[in-house]
Amino acid sequence: MFKNYYWHGNRGEKTVYLTFDDGPTPLVTDFVTDLLSQYGFKATFFCIGDKVDRYPATYKLLENQGHQVGNHTYHHLNAWTTKKNRYLDNIDECSKVVDTKLFRPPYGRITSTVTKRLINKGYQIVLWDVLSGDFDQKRTAASCLKNLKKNTRNGSVIVFHDSDKSFEKLKIILPKYLKFLKEKGWDSKSISKPASI
Ligand SMILES: [Zn+2]
């Protein structure tokens, strides 16, 4: 099962893979893309289909700026508590508005049956090796940043959230973290489509 998931990229390259879940979100996604463009960084945005339908202009921004997009289901469903067929249908629903074969399961929760079905359909399932903790109300921005700096390695796939809920912390953490990456000589790239992984 382990090889069915993409946890990180090449450990030998000075590249990391910034990822942003749960958007597109007006203002928040704009903030993120503006900042990324200041550094010339590219990222991967795992979008919720329902939000793509509600905020098409914000979604368009991702394509226009050359970022990669990923499927994060249409309604942000939990694979452990959702019937298999409903879950797979929800991914299909999202794929109508997000054209991609990259998939990240909400909450990082997935089952072996769903994994098999998605791989048969040509999907690459992307998890991560570094969590920013931006969504965690109990953690301070300083502790998130410290943890990020400590755990970032070559090839790391790092999770942030371009959501309203995480914005208060994200707007403090992200500028400092991107500056740190640049100073340490890391570039951020989008995750490639399945064929080239
Ligand atoms: Zn999510």
Please outline what is shown here.
Helices cover 40% and strands 17% of the residues.
Structural summary, described in words:
The chain is α/β, with parallel strands linked by helices and 197 residues long. The chain has a single domain (4-196), classed as Glycoside hydrolase/deacetylase (TIM Barrel), CATH 3.20.20. Helices cover 40% and strands 17% of the residues. The chain is built from seven helices and nine strands. It has helices at 28-39, 49-54, 56-64, 84-95, 112-120, 141-151, 164-183; strands spanning 5-6, 15-23, 43-47, 68-71, 102-103, 124-126, 130-131, 157-161, 187-188. The strands form two sheets. Strands 2, 3, 4, 7, 8 and 9 form a six-stranded parallel β-sheet that branches. Strands 1-6-5 form a three-stranded parallel β-sheet. The model has no long low-confidence stretch (mean pLDDT 95). Zinc ion binds at residues 21-22, 72, 76, 106.
Rg over alpha carbons = 16 Å
Q: Which range does the strand content fall in? A: 15-25%
Ligand identities: zinc ion
Task: Kindly name the structural category.
Answer: alpha/beta
End-to-end distance, in Å? 17 Å
Shape by Cα distribution: globular
Going by CATH, the architecture would be Alpha-Beta Barrel
Return the string of H and E elements. Answer: EEHEHHEHEHEEHEHE
Q: CATH superfamily assignment? A: Glycoside hydrolase/deacetylase
Identify low-pLDDT runs: none
Q: What would the average pLDDT be, to the nearest integer?
A: 95
How many strands, what sense, and barrel or not for the largest sheet? 6 strands, parallel
Secondary structure: helix percent:
40-55%
CATH topology type: TIM Barrel
Number of strands: 9
Q: Class in CATH?
A: Alpha Beta
